[in-house]
Design goal:
Length: about 150
């Protein structure tokens, strides 16, 4: 193999490996979010297979819109693989009013928000990386209902 092809091959290999590392980080964040959900599953919450994820800088927020139904109870769990990060999740109605229950919590690289909707409507789940030693921090948000 001549040197030009060798360099191209190495570059492509490194690009593929970088992509795998990025995916692994979001997958790792999802596994932490699911770990936060475990005690609630034992209480009868069904965790949905779909989830949201990505990466944010410290101080950055992202809004996720979700249809929630009156009569159900929901928990949203957020996690990251970055141990020294601090994350948060909050739930707002369509008018921008905070609607989460008082038992919502934040513990380092885990956070959870609990809501019992008073009406069937779109709600906004705001996730944030409050602090992180990383330039970009991968996160994932899963949710469950009963």
């Amino acid at each position: 193999m001549n040197s030009r092809y060798r360099v191209a091959f190495i570059f492509m290999s490194m690009s593929l490996l970088a992509g795998i590392v990025v995916l692994a980080s979001v997958d790792d964040a999802q596994s932490f979010a699911l770990q936060a959900a475990e005690p609630y599953v034992r209480e009868g919450f069904q965790v949905r297979e779909d989830y949201w994820g990505g990466d944010l800088a410290a101080g950055e927020k992202k809004a996720v819109r979700q249809q929630l139904f009156k009569g159900n109870e929901y928990w949203f769990w957020m996690g990251t693989e970055v141990n020294r990060a601090r994350v948060s999740v909050h739930i707002y109605d369509k008018d921008g009013k905070l609607v989460e229950q008082p038992d919502s919590w934040q513990k380092g690289h885990f956070a959870a928000a609990h809501v019992v909707p008073t009406s069937t409507d779109s709600y906004y789940i705001i996730v944030a990386i409050e602090e992180s030693p990383e330039e970009r921090t991968h996160w994932a948000l899963v949710y469950g209902f009963r």
